[in-house]
Please model this.
Amino acid sequence: MADQSIPEARTPETPLDDGVPESAPLKEGLSRRRLLGTAGATGLVLGAAGAAVGYAARPSEATPLSSVGADQVMFHGKHQPGILQGLQARGHLVAFDLAAGAGRKEAAALLRRWSETARRLMAGEAMKQDDTDVARDAGPSSLTITFGFGHSFFARTGLEKQRPVALDPLPDFSSDQLDKARGNGDLWVQIGANDALVAFHALRAIQKDAGQAAKVRWQMNGFNRSPGATSHPMTARNLMGQMDGTRNPKPTDADFGQRIFVPASGSKDPSWMANGSYAVVRRIRMLLDDWEQLSLAEQEQVIGRRKSDGAPLTGGTETTEMDLEKTDKAGNLVVPLNAHARITRPDQNGGAAMLRRPFSYHDGIDADGVPDAGLLFICWQADPLRGFVTVQRKLDRGDALSKFIRHESSGLFAVPGGAAEGEYVGQRLLEG
Model:
């Protein structure tokens, strides 16, 4: 849960509301404020009179209350979708293993099907056949579908010579308590959208498309704050209540591309990974009962930032540079040496950085009344050894937050660059 790499929920491409002022006139000559006020005042009357009256009283061509459903992300492009976009309200992560006897030919046919389905659904269209109608009436809702290859995929398809060195298994960490059945896999799919039904529809479509070629290995569900839930764009909060994402790398940074994406040339990676990235995926359980027993001051000492606004304990606003040398009247460092925000800073890790786009999760409450909740950690980098591994090793040696979290599953996937028009994802690997 590195502070420097948790994504901001600033998504300028996603409107906070319908973009229409409250006083904007509607077709019937009513302002939005007056219309909503009238609806509130007459709600009992409309309810008693029946649905037909409510329908008749609605302006025939009223301005939609939200444009969230209309937002669309393009499938074809330099990079795959689901990396550079802002946080999405709903997400599904799913890994597949190729079926016994399936190899390169079957994998190519599957990626071709998946790519066509992703293109259609991201445009707000139905599946090519056997659509379930789950997303009928909804727009694209910023749907993104992203595909990656695990370490085992290359042996299964006879492509070992094309397997990147960067895809070597991650090292063990002392805080790991990993369930191997819920980690890795031949193929990985990330689905995100700003509507739950749109996201589920995509998940079901991907599973159906897999057919007999691949079977689900594991699947996880996540969520983030819905667009428009806050009065203005702001950094997201995690389930600990902390503002998460202040120091996430930004596309405007001069070195953003070289940190996050594999270059088109001059790289040690195979050519099919040009403009791609590596995704580290971890299910990190938050021990919320223990965390919530801490006082506010103790929580802030663990993180190194104020809980209210994300500002460093050394003062200023959320984006103020942290003063790592500042001491209090007793001579103690204001930001403790083991504070999470101090340990994860790029300048404390040789410049290591990663782009994070996580989802929170809640998988119920166990028999002891303890919530199974936390973070579906997803981080992107051009080199996982230099990005995730460098930072996690530092955290492993003494992060104050480590006693309140537990890493329960892990995966590493090579995510190739985006598909050009007429191509499918991974075509340069599978047909090269």
